[in-house]
Amino acid sequence: MPESTSLTFSLLPDSIRQSSAIGAEVQLPPGMSKLDLDRLTEKDKETLRKALFENQVIVIRGQKGIDATVLPQFAKVFDPSASDVHSAGEKAVSDPKNILSAYKAGRIPKAPQVGIIGSGTFHDYEGLKELEVIHLDHTLFHEKPLAQEEIDQGYTRPYRWHMDTPFYERLPGEVTILHSIRIPNLPDQMIKFPDGKEKSIGAGATAFFSGARAFALLTPEEQEFALNTTVTYAPQAYEYIRQCKASEDGLTIPTLGSEVPVEKLSEWSWDKVAEHPMVWRNPLNPDRPFLQVHGCCVFKLSTRNPATGEVTVIDDVEKVRNVVYNMQKKIYAAENIYAHRWEEGDLVIFHNRGVMHSITGQLSQHKHDEDKKRMLWQCTMTSVTPPKPFRTYEGVNDTGYVRA
Ligand SMILES: [Fe+2]
Q: Which SUPFAM superfamilies does the UniProt entry name for this protein (predicted)?
């Protein structure tokens, strides 16, 4: 097949990528305006994987009208071990203890792996008579919320950095696919950073930072610590932190005390509690270490001395959060964050095991309902294969769960 019929990709401009090491745009093969998996060659799929695993977030523009059932199939191009189960479980959530029910997230009936998130009420949509989706309000999330004056000036913040996974019972998918159906008709908003810089982003932008970049910013001592450390997440992690508020940067929980006591959580057992290496290996970019840790859901750190094999445990949750935060906060600068500026029809694939991402955007304050309406499809499927540790040694726990 001649070269000119192949799918290609190009990096987003330096002015957008800055130091994030994130972002590429995919051009479908000539003559293919909508993604058609049956017409992609093996070489096209290889190019897609290369684009994603080297750049962590890729976008295909102009995909308005794509069928929801294509998304789960497309995810398997990047993650052959993806199950057909949404990371949040088989069905849409109505459990008030679950984070996703705060969004009132719906599911597309013909593609239950695809969730609907956004803001506003929609009628007769994809077989759903009435669908109400709610954009999270920052005031629910931050210990020190933005002042009304700052909101009026157009400021927003990342709400909470995360990977798409419950850290309980199900493993994180390799990729998440987002598709923009409708974007808010609002002016740009701004994020203020601790160094005083400001970043102008699209209203409702999805923000990302690379775990590889986060690792590269660590001191050599911190890198060594991270490579030798296993992270145990809290049992029923999101329920555990349900009433906790995040720091202004959305990376950690600064104050201990609002956690649901473990004995009051929904039924749980240790063998379903997530346990992952702090540094993950990228399947197609195996020489680059990725610091992948959810700073709000952490519970315990076990660090192995490679010389002696001795393991040191930190299980004071406040201390665990501090250790992780001091490492991860270095990434929080305008030039390290890629904030995807949504256009309607965008298909965005992100490497869920290679980035942390966050919702941004103050939408609810705006007066006109039609202007703040937004809708995204989100396809995230739990994977069968656990994340691989970057550093392996005899006895390393690479099962994804606490070992009984
Ligand atoms: Fe997410």
A: Clavaminate synthase-like
Residue 155 within any structural domain of the chain = yes
3-state helix, strand, coil in the chain (%, to 5): 25, 30, 45
Asked whether the predicted pLDDT for residue 167 surpasses 70, the reply is yes
20 and 144 belong to one structural domain? yes
* 403 C-alpha to ligand 1 centroid (Å): 27
CA of 161 to the centre of ligand 1 (A): 8
Using the mean position of ligand 1's atoms as its centre, give its distance from the Cα of residue 402 in Å.
Answer: 24
- Counting Cα atoms < 13 Å in the Cβ hemisphere of 150 gives 15
For residue 253, being part of any structural domain is answered with yes
Cα 206 to chain centroid, rounded: 9
The pLDDT value given to residue 363: 83
Q: Which residues, including other chains, have CB under 8 Å from residue 202's CB and lie 6 or more apart?
A: 183, 188, 189, 339, 340, 341, 342
Centre of ligand 1 to C-alpha 176, Å, is: 8
| Residue pLDDT, tens place only, 304-314 | 999 999 999 99
181 CA to middle of ligand 1, Å?
A: 17
**pLDDT band at 118; cut points 50, 70, 90:** confident
Q: Is 178 exposed, middle or buried (0-12, 13-18, 19+ CB in 10 A)?
A: buried
Q: How far is the CA of 393 from the centre of ligand 1 (A)?
A: 31
The parent domain of residue 121 ranges over 10-212+338-383
Tens of pLDDT, residue by residue over 135-145, are: 766 667 899 99
Q: Specify the number of domains making up the chain.
A: 2
> Is the predicted pLDDT of residue 102 greater than 60, yes or no?
no
Q: Label residue 64 exposed, middle or buried (CB < 10 Å: 0-12, 13-18, 19+).
A: middle
